[in-house]
């Protein structure tokens, strides 16, 4: 192999390795920034264990909001048809945040509780994100199937 071909082959190999490395870093960075949406029942069933940060969506349980007297810390419970998850948040909540209101909280699990870094409340009575609506509808349908099966077994 003559020196010119050898140099060209070396350059092509270096460019290919650099491109592969750049693509790998971009894919890794994008995976770290993805936020998946789960309902409390999905989190409790273990579907969110592989994600460091994710979104938790559902309804704020009536009477579960507890505000700290000396800080901006708020604890509340997010529920869906099949589960409930305690949430802890430190910061200013949206004006529309209240009992029986749909919320989406971004954060991570700390033991059995969800520590939120951001809380979003729905903006009107008809809006619900498609992912949350589908997940809650599936959980509700699963609960109805289980109830029907239990009623069929009873004498």
Describe this structure in words.
- The structure is a single chain.
- With 155 residues, this protein is α+β, with helices and mostly antiparallel strands.
- Helix content is 38%, strand content 28%.
- The chain is built from three helices and seven strands.
- Strands 2-4-5-7-6 form a five-stranded mixed beta barrel.
- A hairpin with a 4-residue loop joins strand 4 and strand 5.
- 21% of the residues are buried.
- The mean pLDDT is 84.
Short overview:
The chain has 155 residues and is of the alpha+beta class.
Helices and strands, with pairings:
Layout: H1 3-32, E1 37-38, H2 40-44, E2 54-60, E3 66-67, E4 73-79, E5 84-90, E6 102-110, E7 113-121, H3 130-153
Parallel strand pairs: 1-2, 5-7
Antiparallel strand pairs: 2-4, 2-6, 3-4, 4-5, 6-7
Labels describing this entry:
3 helices, alpha+beta, single chain, 155 residues
Rounded average pLDDT: 84
Largest sheet: 5 strands, mixed, barrel
**What structural class do helix, strand and pairing data support?**
alpha+beta
Q: Are there runs of 5+ residues with pLDDT below 50, and where?
A: none
> What separation lies between the terminal Cα atoms?
86 Å
Please tally the helical runs, counting DSSP H or I stretches of 4 or more residues.
3
What percent of residues adopt helix (DSSP H or I)? Answer: 25-40%
Radius of gyration: 24 Å
Strand order of the largest sheet: 2-4-5-7-6
Provide the succession of SSEs: HEHEEEEEEH
Assembly state here? single chain
The number of E-state strands comes to: 7
Outline: elongated
Beta-strand portion reads 25-35%
